[in-house]
């Protein structure tokens, strides 16, 4: 799924999908509010957009005439992959509601960078929050991350630490379990359901600030240490997988490509029992074969 605000960042994910032969459908934010539009998809990939959550929802100011992006006598080269009568509108609150219904009925929404922040700010799962950096400066650096809660997302990652690419935000936090005793008033079945709906940090940034940086700029790394890098957040019967990192950035982060492909390939198996370690070398080869239809960026496939 792309935004009309920009297409450069999602274009690199389209390129990766094309190279790997991943079938997908190119959709835009304005379409998803249509009744039943998302029903045919199992996975929606919503790549990073250089915009705030307000811009993603509301789009550009609705002033002046419409701004079309479509094939015409004046612009015969446009409209090959997608087109709109007006690039200004965003997904709107109807689109947000449609995305949430899609996840609640069992779909997977995969977000990264600013779209991860949008999923947090829109309240898809209240156990995931985002904090604002104070003095942190990390503009496109290679950092050391570490495995967290076992998940199909990290099948095949058999090293405790590995490099990831990160660019300043978002700083994701996963709420710690409630050990205050307040849950004792609830029935065990309710407590169990609450625990199952808790987000989990599948990958975190290294716990020591002085071990974070591999290459690039890093100032005030203590603000980033132990923050969640990849989060699996259950929502209803589905999941939102939030990447604080940029796992498919410009074809250069191939070490983290598999986490995206694992999440997509196991879209309806992300509730694998917690505490069960993934078998070594199991990336893209674990779990039964399941049908997959992805709403994401495309070159017309």
What features would you describe in this structure?
The structure is a single chain. This protein is of the alpha/beta class. The protein has a single domain, classed as Rossmann fold (3-Layer(aba) Sandwich). The protein is 19% helix and 20% strand. It is built from 6 helices and 12 strands. Strands 1, 2, 3, 5, 6, 8, 9, 10, 11 and 12 form a 10-stranded mixed β-sheet that branches. Strands 4-7 form a two-stranded antiparallel sheet. The longest helix is centred in the first third of the chain and has 13 residues. It is globular, with a radius of gyration of 19 Å. The chain starts with 7 loop residues before the first helix and ends in a 5-residue tail after the last strand. The C terminus is likely disordered.
Task: Describe the structure concisely.
This protein is of the alpha/beta class and 301 residues long.
Strand content: 15-25%
Helix fraction, binned, reads 10-25%
Question: What oligomeric arrangement do these chains adopt?
Answer: single chain
Number of helices: 6
Average residue-wise pLDDT:
89
CATH topology: Rossmann fold
> What's the architecture, going by CATH?
3-Layer(aba) Sandwich
Task: Tell me the series of helices and strands, N- to C-terminal.
Answer: HEEHHEHEEEEHEEEEHE
Unreliable segments of 5+ consecutive residues: 274-293, 296-301
Q: What is the CATH H-level superfamily?
A: Class I glutamine amidotransferase (GATase) domain
Distance between the termini: 13 Å
């Amino acid at each position: 799924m792309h935004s009309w605000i920009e297409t450069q960042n999602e274009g690199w994910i389209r390129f990766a999908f094309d190279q790997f032969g991943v079938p997908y459908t190119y959709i835009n934010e304005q379409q998803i509010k249509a009744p039943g539009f998302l029903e045919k998809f199992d996975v929606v990939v919503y790549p990073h957009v250089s915009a705030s959550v307000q811009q993603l929802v509301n789009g550009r100011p609705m002033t002046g005439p419409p701004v079309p992006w479509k094939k015409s006598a004046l612009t015969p080269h446009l409209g090959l992959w997608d087109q709109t009568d007006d690039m200004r509108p965003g997904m709107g609150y109807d689109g947000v509601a449609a995305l949430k219904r899609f996840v609640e009925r069992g779909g997977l929404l995969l977000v990264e960078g600013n779209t991860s922040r949008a999923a947090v700010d829109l309240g898809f799962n209240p156990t995931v929050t985002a904090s604002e950096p104070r003095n942190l400066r990390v503009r496109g650096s290679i950092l050391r991350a570490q495995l967290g809660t076992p998940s199909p997302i990290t099948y095949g990652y058999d090293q405790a630490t590995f490099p990831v690419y990160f660019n300043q935000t978002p700083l994701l936090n996963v709420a710690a379990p409630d050990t205050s005793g307040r849950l004792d008033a609830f029935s065990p079945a309710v407590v169990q359901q609450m625990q199952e709906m808790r987000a989990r940090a599948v990958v975190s940034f290294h716990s020591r600030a002085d071990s974070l940086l591999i290459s690039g700029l890093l100032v005030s790394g203590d603000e980033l240490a132990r923050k969640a890098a990849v989060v699996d957040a259950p929502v209803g019967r589905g999941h939102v997988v939030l990447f604080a990192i940029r796992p498919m950035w410009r074809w250069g982060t191939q070490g983290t490509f598999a986490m995206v492909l694992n999440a997509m390939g196991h879209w309806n198996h992300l509730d694998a029992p917690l505490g069960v370690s993934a078998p070594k070398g199991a990336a893209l080869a674990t779990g039964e074969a399941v049908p997959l239809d992805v709403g994401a960026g495309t070159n017309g496939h």
